[in-house]
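Hey, quick one: can you model this chain's 3D structure?
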Amino acid sequence: MERWNDGMKGGFVAAFFCFPHDTEWLGTPGRSIDLVPMMPYQRLNAWRSCHQLALATYRITQSFPKYELYGITSQMRRAAFSAPANIAEGSAKRGPREFRRFLDIALGSLAELSYAILFAKELGYLSESDWKELDELRSVAGKLTWGFYRLISERGG
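Sure thing. Here's the predicted structure for all 157 residues.
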């Protein structure tokens, strides 16, 4: 675990961080992997989980009908991108209350994506395996983000 100085006296310990180094191997499966400097948000398991969900959403929605490009495809992609983007933005804010507000927005995006995944499945746009993959990734991302939100709230955020 790593200490995170959140502006509170002494900071607090968060189990939602990973990798204690300033650089880490980051990459996408099937692509080359480079050693890159990590941004502080990249150490958050909630962000990592949401990021993987966003990548999977973009990959899977490529097979959706072209006439849905500005419909459900766009809606799913925007909701999926919004969750890790809000965690990243919130991590740069000046304290736990502001960060919690951005985590709240990320949770809303995950809820929106949950419905969009169900909707796409019922329209027949998602195979059973793609639906299970997205639903599992969304479930994990939601649990980690909600846990992080609760932790910050309990610590005075």
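One thing worth noting: The CA atoms of residues 2 and 79 lie 30 Å apart.
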